[in-house]
Amino acid sequence: MNEERLYTVLKGPHVSEKSTVIADQAGQVVFRVARDASKREVKAAVEKLFEVKVRDVRTAQMKGKQKRFGRLSGRRAHWKKAYVSLEPGYDIDFMGGAE
């Protein structure tokens, strides 16, 4: 796999109430990923960047929300998210030990 591509697959962590509950209960981490990223690319990128073992990857296409500002209307961009299940014993800490 192209190493440059792996650095562009992950856009960042998706932090929400649901993603923090999933991280605590199921040992999964949620990422925003490129819309054309495959599950294999997401797995390779997470394993390379965070030095963890990935068990499974599930992806979901998210539709952009319709937004209005006065009489002007528009739409946010569509995006893709990936639910990454880690092997037991592995963890990704985005806070860096902050308390």
Describe this structure in words.
With 99 residues, this protein is of the alpha+beta class. The chain has one domain: RRM (RNA recognition motif) domain (Alpha-Beta Plaits, 2-Layer Sandwich), CATH 3.30.70. It contains three helices and six strands. The protein has a four-stranded antiparallel sheet with strand order 1-2-6-3. Strand 4 and strand 5 form a beta hairpin. Helix 1 packs across helix 3. The longest helix has 12 residues. The radius of gyration is 15 Å and the shape is globular. The protein starts with a helix and ends in a 13-residue tail after the last strand. The model has no long low-confidence stretch (mean pLDDT 92).
List keywords for this structure.
99 residues; alpha+beta; Alpha-Beta Plaits; four-stranded antiparallel β-sheet; two-stranded antiparallel sheet; 3 helices
